[in-house]
Write a structure and sequence with these properties.
The chain is of the alpha/beta class. It contains 14 helices and twelve strands.
Amino acid sequence: MKIGVFGAGAVGGFVGGCLLAGGAEVIFVGRAARGAAWRKDGLRLTDLDGRDDFVAPERIVYSDTASSLADCDLVLLTVKSGQTGGAATELSSVLRSGIPVLSLQNGVNNAATLQQLLPSAKILRGMVPFNVTTPGPAHLHRATEGNMAVADDPVAAAAAPFFTAAGLALDLRRDMEEVQWAKLLMNLNNAINALSGLPLREQLQTRGFRLCLALAQREALSLLAAQGRLRPARLTPLPPGWLPSVLSLPDALFRAIAGRMLKIDATARSSMADDLAAGRFPEVDWINGAVVALATKLGRRAPVNERLCTLVKDAATSGRKTWAADALLAELRQSVRSG
């Protein structure tokens, strides 16, 4: 199986790099500067559980154009959600009919977008639960835990042994929409982490920031309940509906009950925080914005997630970069009273 990775950034590079280290044939497509660094120094892959692999430079096949993926048997799409349309345009003139494209992106709507723009491709939903940091230009590090989930499909089943050999066991699921909404509930923290200016673990150890996340999650859960069509999947020891209450606990009790949530490298930050730091426009419209879109569809409002969208966009353009926990919590509570 020849596997292509379109969007070889942190997540795509780590997943593809692990597959390559595990013996699969992998072709990366991404930014030319990143490819130059990997072809010069090789690619180091580490994680918080002790993994430390190295892929030699001569084994790395890297391009900045989609044409190199023409002969692939499976394409992993790992671009930011805002780049989905552009990626589909590039792939449409390259991929053979019926080639499976596995979306490993944040949000809940990318697979539908891809199926519309790539009607001849086989689009599969996927979910990556972990955060990947970049300690160096040729070093990728998995900083949080969790198993990847992929739609239960013969293509995914055929690819599963390659992922297992790479140390990335796939959870084959028949409820991927529910899985993606469960992941989105967790990802509502990305905006809060970006606004906090803190590493993830430190931010989650601060009750004020957890209360902000609880507000955003309660709002999303209420809307999903009103929709009545799906219930978020259970991806953690705690059912999704319990998360806001657990997040609201005092610090010591939270650490005792939800210690696994804090199994995070001390320096890890959300991808949205990384985007703000790098001057890239963040994915907030596809995460918190998905809650706002659901509210609109139901003829309701989602003032907490609306406000988080606005604050992150302001930070991305010209505004205030960081918030103290109490100040952000007061801002979000005011949005509820005003909304």
